[in-house]
Each structure stands twice: as C-alpha cells, then as structure tokens.
Hints:
By secondary structure, the protein is an alpha/beta fold. It folds into two domains: 2-216, Rossmann fold (3-Layer(aba) Sandwich); 225-285, Alpha-Beta Plaits, CATH 3.30.70. The chain has ten helices and 14 strands. The two termini are 36 Å apart. Residues 13, 15, 17, 19, 37, 39-45 line the site of adenosine-5'-diphosphate.
Amino acid sequence: MNVIDIHDVWKTYRGGVQALGGISLQVPQGQIFGFLGPNGAGKSTLVKVLTSIVKPNKCQGTMLGMPIGHKPTLAKVGYLPEHARFPEYLKGREVIQYVAGLSGVPKSRARVKADELLELVGMSDWANKKMGTYSKGMKQRIGLAQALVNDPEIVFLDEPTDGVDPRGRKEMRDVLEKMRDQGRTVFINSHLLGELEMICDSVAIMDRGTLVTQGSIAELTAKSQRIELDYQGSLSPDLTQRLHSMGAESAQQTLTIYQKSIPEVQSIIDALRKEQVTIARVQEVRQNLEDFFISSVSTEGVGGTQN
Ligand SMILES: Nc1ncnc2c1ncn2[C@@H]1O[C@H](COP(=O)(O)OP(=O)(O)O)[C@@H](O)[C@H]1O
Ligand SMILES: [Mg+2]
C-alpha cells in the first residue's frame, strides 16, 4: 500500500521560481523513504505541499487515502522542518512537552509520552539539561522526538542529519530504524546520499523541480551492475574477438562484462580456461547511490548551491 500517491504536482513561487514541475511520487507504507537531490531541487517544497504549509498550483492524489490539503489528515503526520530551532533556554523534555501541548496531547499524557520519546532517541539522561547545552546531534534527536508526539503514521524529516557529526549521524540512523520498526513511514529529505544508502528501503531522486527516478536502491543500481575479471598473460586475437562477441570488454588485464551476474559469466570463464588463461579475480561491482545520483542529475545541479 502507498501512504503517499501523488501526481502532477506543480509549484511556482511568487516571483516566478518554479520549484516543482509536475511531480509524481509513490511512497510505500512502513518504509524508510529517501527523497534525494541537490540543494534547490524542490525537496522541501514538496514536503511543505504535503504538510499544507505551501499551497501548490496543482496537485492530484492522496496522502493516507485523503486528498492533499485535507487538514484532519495532518493529525497523523509528524514533521521536523529543515533548520528547525527550538528555544535554547528550554530543556529537552520541555520542548517535547511543549510540542505535545500544541498538538493537543493532555498534560499528564504528555509527560509519559515525553519519557517514552526521550528513551527512544537516547536522550533520557539529558532530558533536564537545556537545549543550549546540547550538541547539534542531540538537538536533532530532540527534533526527531518532537516529530513523534502525535504518534504519526508518516514522519517527514527535512535534512535531519545536516550539520551533525558522523557519530551523531550513526545514532540518528538507529533512531530512524526504530521509527520504522514501530510501523511508521519515514520520509527523509536529504542531499547526502552515502549515509542514506544504508537505511533507505527506496528512494526518489529530484533535480530542478522534476523527478529523475524512483525505486528501491537495488533496482536503481542494477543497471550499473557489472562483472570485473582480472586475468594474467595475454589473450590471442581470436579469443579477444570471441570474448567481445560474448559482451566482454578487455583493457589492461581486466575484462568487464556489463549487466551480468556471476552465473551468467561462467561461459566466458570457460572460454578463458580452455585457452589456459589464468584468472586472478572475478568480482561483481555495483555503482553506489552517490555515483548513480551524480550520473543521474546534471553536473550544474550538483554542488552548485551547497549550503
Ligand atoms: N518561499 C520561497 N519563495 C521563493 N522561492 C522559493 C521559496 N522557497 C524555495 N524557493 C525556491 O524554490 C526552489 C526549490 O527550493 P527547495 O524546495 O527549498 O529545494 P530543496 O529543499 O531541494 O533544497 C529553489 O530554487 C528555491 O530557491
Ligand atoms: Mg530543502
């Protein structure tokens, strides 16, 4: 089931910037979904459309089965905005209770909820310290906790790991996995690819207001799958010719066979062995998401507007 199923979403801001140019997106229930793309691609705008903060020029489809813009549906949605800041003089626990109050959670329930959430994000020991004393990673963990006060079915996290150090990012990934294990759909905006690859079940890649591609990481990188085979000695012209006809390219003692798996290259190995060629290494290689991303989006878009 898709918790988000939208098509033909358009947004042009006053002043004429077209942030979304006809987006269609399906987000499966209960997954960690990575919404990726360079800065300025339109990721935050789409999340703001889904959370009714920004009014689209056009938007078809549903979230949790209801049309986009249906206010009561937002009670089932959590949100950590990009560059979210909470008052430095509040304690971590107070931030969570304050947000709980805003979403209509009764006071007694809010205390219990805050304890649960502080535990979930690993901040119980710091709950009574002020936000001003926290590291960026700790502040973001409070940010994750406050996004869960209303027990949402979908949680939108806009660049949650931005400015967080590597250890903090690892801790944050653990929390995101816990959220998924609770059955929530976790929708993460990010311009950082490498760290999402490990935890996202599926991704969509945006560039300049349009969707470049979407699918599971395995699906997206499958096209780049290849086998590399190192050999020793030289190949006769006749064998080289035959290997070419079998789809293998040779260069400097390495054969590359594109879009094939290990079982599918056994006939090539047989042909080499028959000619007494020594095989030194056979390996399956896949492009990682970062390389895929770079090759999918225009070079101008990538790195052009880093913050
Ligand atoms: N409130 C706004 N008014 C005008 N232009 C905006 C506004 N918000 C975003 N934009 C522009 O829309 C485009 C997409 O922005 P955004 O959705 O924030 O992208 P991302 O989150 O992928 O970095 C950018 O060109 C940005 O400058
Ligand atoms: Mg953004």
